[in-house]
């Protein structure tokens, strides 16, 4: 099905490789790599980084060309969209040579009085890593609270400053990222983790003149499969504390102006029932899947809150439909904006419902789309009474565009569009949507983008996949991708089951006992690209990150000859062993996604696809693995074990020109480097490997 990259193009690997030096006869599975504090662990990872550097040395010039080509195509000085709040207009600016933004504001109507109020570039100067967890302005816009992670392990410190020039003070350490203000301007809400880094509790922190009092526990979640989150209704009248697992949710309400009020459970959890809330004065809106697999929308008179089971009093607004999934509800004083997804076209839509005083629908229409397929989302809308909606649009060939849509006139005004420089313009690209037929006859959407002047010819192709947690991979524009497209590659996305691309049924058909559908869908997408004449079957590389790494790795175990290479970024590949360890972060919360291996049938099912448990003598293609030392979601040892095991299997393979490479970022977490320039350089290295594997490393962009 494929040919390996030519032998004379494969940079050599040292015979003194790390696997030979660190192999332990009594531990063929390499489980010793889980012992983080053992000196041999860091020595092994540093050795694999040196080996990776040696392999990439002949491609260093290509890496630099890709990196600088990327810089030349994008606007390095970035000015964020200005958002008017009640008193100030706020926005961010990132200098051309900066990694991080500076946040600015000016009094509404007085842009000459601009002042900086949070300089993340300056704050990052003291750290190798910095990630902003959350940032929240007090309702009176006089105080700023934010959380920072400076290790990459997703553990945060809470800061507070008086605006604009107050000195930041540390309020709390070792908390979760989420924070929220009550409407009294004197109370912050935050979350804390348990030992497995599950947000298990919500706390109230009183503030007086910038000083914090003693935190008070508001809500604690005992069930290890549930985690807590914070929110506020758009009406700003209610704080929402949500407890949720992967398939069940429960919301608790606190009056936003009386945050010391004990939380009230809106509706007690019911296994398998998910619901989300928003609010207009007098009414709650409940988006739920109770007896409605694809979700429906009901409303509750606020006066009935607390009268037994609220579902006894729900009034229908939008019924369940077979062809669409309702994904979100946003309330305004005039009505609602509904986010919904068409199952047949795998396309998101925004639907506007205007309501009269009697709650009759006086307007029901979908907002226009720029093209198909595309992404469309509601942007910041801090004012409850606004009739000018901010929208965010993009596609594989449309750069990110922010629009203002006037509900009264229908006028659409472009507020900002991502500028693109260089010789490959968005209008020189073409995007196609095709449908692959999977092993069971299901139709799987596949998106592919390429240069228009190369359309009609089978192209070397990078195939991307994720397929888990119901995550939707809607079309997105990528400046870095232009470097691949300019050199003659195509980029494709397999919208496999397990994701949410075709709504809730698509997710359910790719989780738990149906997980194998995801792998078959990915391979079917690969074959469809070849059969339709879009991709060169000898030169297709695969890419997967995190759960996408599971997707690609399991697909390679099923069909190792399907791809000429694979990039696996922080890949989740030791599925069975991870799910058997409830002490690891996130494991218990994942039972409803993968299954609880304490149950024999779930154990067998996971065992049958877990990539590390299904390696065989069949040689994989060339592989570039990437891990992060501080990753709490997919520990560094998962890609490291896969590297070691594949390397050992490769010794039984006569084709030693199939490199197995591992690179571990020793200062980052699950998302990789925090600074944009380092992240772009890491991406250039990754793309150099892909171009080498596709036989395009000699092409110029």
Automatic annotation (TrEMBL):
Any one GO biological process: proteolysis
Q: What PANTHER family does UniProt report for this protein, alphabetically?
A: PROLYL ENDOPEPTIDASE-LIKE, PROTEASE FAMILY S9A OLIGOPEPTIDASE
Question: What InterPro entries has UniProt attached to this entry?
Answer: AB_hydrolase_fold, Pept_S9_AS, Pept_S9A_N, Peptidase_S9_cat, Peptidase_S9A, Serine_Peptidase_S9A
The record's SUPFAM superfamilies line, in alphabetical order, gives: alpha/beta-Hydrolases, Peptidase/esterase 'gauge' domain
Region Disordered: what ranges?
Answer: 1-20
Question: For the Peptidase S9 prolyl oligopeptidase catalytic domain, which residue ranges apply?
Answer: 476-695
Annotated GO MF terms: serine-type endopeptidase activity
Keyword list (alphabetical) reads: Hydrolase, Protease, Serine protease
Q: Does the keyword Protease apply?
A: yes
Q: Name one Pfam family in it.
A: Peptidase_S9_N
What range(s) does the Peptidase S9A N-terminal domain occupy? 25-418
Top-level taxonomic group: Bacteria
Q: Which organism is it from?
A: Halomonas aestuarii
- Composition bias, kind Basic and acidic residues: at what positions? 1-10
Has keyword Cell cycle? no
Protein name as it appears in the record = S9 family peptidase
């Amino acid at each position: 099905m494929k040919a390996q990259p030519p032998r004379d193009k494969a940079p050599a690997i040292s015979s003194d490789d790390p696997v030979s030096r660190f192999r332990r006869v009594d531990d063929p599975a390499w489980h010793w790599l889980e012992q983080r504090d053992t000196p041999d662990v860091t020595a092994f990872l540093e050795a694999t980084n040196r080996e990776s550097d040696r392999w990439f040395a002949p491609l260093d010039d290509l890496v630099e060309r890709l990196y600088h080509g990327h810089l030349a195509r994008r606007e390095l000085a970035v000015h964020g969209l200005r958002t008017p709040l009640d008193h100030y207009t706020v926005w961010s600016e990132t200098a051309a040579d900066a990694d991080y933004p500076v946040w600015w504001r000016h009094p509404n109507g007085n842009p000459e009085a601009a002042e900086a109020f949070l300089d993340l570039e300056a704050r990052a100067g003291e750290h190798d890593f910095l990630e902003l967890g959350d940032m929240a302005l007090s309702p009176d816009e006089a105080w700023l609270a934010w959380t920072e992670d400076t290790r990459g392990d997703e553990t945060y410190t809470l800061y507070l400053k008086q605006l604009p020039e107050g000195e930041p003070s540390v309020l709390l350490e070792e908390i979760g990222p989420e924070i929220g203000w009550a409407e009294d301007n004197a109370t912050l809400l935050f979350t804390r983790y348990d030992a497995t880094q599950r947000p298990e509790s919500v706390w109230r922190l009183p503030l007086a003149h910038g000083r914090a009092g003693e935190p008070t526990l508001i809500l604690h979640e005992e069930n290890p499969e549930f985690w807590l989150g914070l929110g506020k209704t758009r009406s700003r009248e209610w704080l929402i504390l949500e407890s949720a697992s992967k398939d069940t949710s429960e919301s608790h309400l606190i009056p936003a102006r009386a945050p010391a009020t004990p939380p009230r459970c809106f509706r007690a959890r019911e296994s398998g029932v998910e619901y989300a809330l928003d609010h207009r004065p007098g009414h709650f809106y409940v988006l739920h899947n109770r007896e409605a697999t694809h979700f429906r929308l009901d409303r509750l008179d606020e006066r009935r809150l607390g009268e037994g089971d609220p579902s006894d009093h729900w009034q229908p607004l939008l019924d369940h439909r077979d062809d669409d999934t309702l994904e979100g509800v946003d309330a305004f004083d005039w009505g609602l904006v509904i986010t919904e997804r068409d199952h047949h076209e795998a396309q998101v839509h925004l639907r506007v419902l205007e309501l009269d005083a009697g709650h009759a629908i006086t307007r029901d229409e979908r907002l226009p789309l720029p093209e198909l397929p595309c992404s469309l989302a509601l942007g910041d809308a801090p004012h409850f009474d606004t009739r000018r909606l901010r929208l965010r649009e993009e596609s594989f060939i449309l750069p990110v565009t922010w629009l203002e849509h006037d509900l009264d006139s229908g006028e659409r005004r472009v507020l900002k569009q991502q500028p693109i420089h260089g010789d490959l313009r968005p209008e020189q690209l073409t995007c196609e949507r095709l449908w692959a037929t999977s092993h069971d006859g299901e139709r799987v959407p596949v998106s592919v983008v390429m240069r228009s002047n190369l359309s009609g010819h089978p192209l070397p192709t990078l195939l991307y996949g994720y397929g888990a947690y119901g995550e939707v991979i809607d079309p997105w524009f990528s400046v870095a991708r232009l470097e691949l497209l300019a050199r003659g590659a195509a980029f494709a996305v397999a919208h496999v089951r397990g994701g949410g691309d075709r709504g809730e049924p698509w997710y359910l058909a790719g989780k738990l006992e149906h997980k194998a559908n995801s792998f078959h869908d990915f391979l079917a997408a690969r074959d469809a690209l070849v059969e339709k004449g879009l991709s060169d079957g000898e030169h297709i590389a695969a890419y997967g990150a995190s759960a996408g790494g599971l997707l690609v790795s399991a697909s390679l175990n099923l069909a190792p000859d399907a791809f000429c290479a694979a990039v696996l970024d922080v890949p989740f590949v030791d599925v069975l062993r991870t799910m058997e360890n409830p002490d690891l972060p996130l494991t218990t919360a994942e039972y409803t996604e993968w299954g609880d291996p304490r149950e024999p049938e779930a154990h067998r099912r996971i065992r049958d696809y877990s990539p590390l448990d299904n390696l065989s003598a069949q040689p994989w293609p060339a592989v570039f693995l990437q891990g992060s030392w501080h990753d709490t979601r997919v520990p560094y040892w998962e890609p490291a074990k896969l590297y070691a095991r594949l390397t050992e299997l490769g010794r039984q393979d006569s084709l030693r020109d199939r490199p197995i490479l591992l690179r571990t970022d020793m200062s980052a977490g699950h998302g990789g480097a925090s600074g944009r320039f380092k992240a772009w350089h890491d991406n250039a290295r990754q793309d150099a490997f892909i171009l080498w594997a596709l036989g395009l490393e000699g092409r110029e962009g």
